[in-house]
Amino acid sequence: MGPEIARILIDRQTIAARVREMGRQLSADLEADLRKDGVDPASNHDRVVMMPILTGGIVFVADLMREMPLKLSMRVVTVSSYPGATTKSKGAALRGALPTDLGGRHVVVVDDILDSGHTLALIRELVLEQNPASLRLCVMLRKNVKRGEAHDVHANYVGFDIEDEFVVGYGLDYDGFYRNLPEIGVVKLGE
Ligand code: IMP
Ligand code: MG
Fold first, then answer.
1. 151-186 pLDDT, tens per residue?
2. Which of 35, 48, 62, 139 has the highest CB neighbour count under 10 A?
3. Whether residue 11 lies in the annotated active site
4. Which are the contacts of 49, defined by CB distance < 8 A and separation ≥ 6?
């Protein structure tokens, strides 16, 4: 733990147990979709795509997909957010290209945290333009639910709801650092 970490919010065991549950749930839901499509989940299909949002989503997706005993492939997408002076002026921008072969596939977008929702709203719009068979949004953390703020998007799978604190670890960064912290911790701000 670095000097800038005030306390651990979610420990490794708790994260691992929740990720295991989420992986099982996602697999079961995807298999049900495949069967509805008339596709045997055990066959040599290429219908399921995991799509982590870089950079924050990489740790979560690495653990999550290993809890999914299902045939799947992976595409990555990079989004950077630009914090504005007000919540309304905050936004998200795509960096580089979006995969172009999502049509007809079951797409699972994976991100570290749902905060304002700008990031997931952007990706959702871009993915839906390609007419995927389905789209699921999956996040490790969700903020601000208790404040009752409307998010721009609904996440279908949420690891944990947290208070409005700045957290790091498990892929989440503070100024580019702490993504490798295996726990989720709260940053000491203003020091
Ligand atoms: P959005 O506001 O939902 O678009 O979230 C944008 C991005 O802000 C997330 O993908 C994270 O990378 C980052 N973010 C939001 N809250 C936190 C936090 O508490 N710690 C670290 N990154 C955060
Ligand atoms: Mg980030």
1. 679 999 999 999 999 999 999 999 999 999 999 999
2. 139
3. no
4. 72, 73, 74, 75, 99, 102, 105, 106, 107, 108
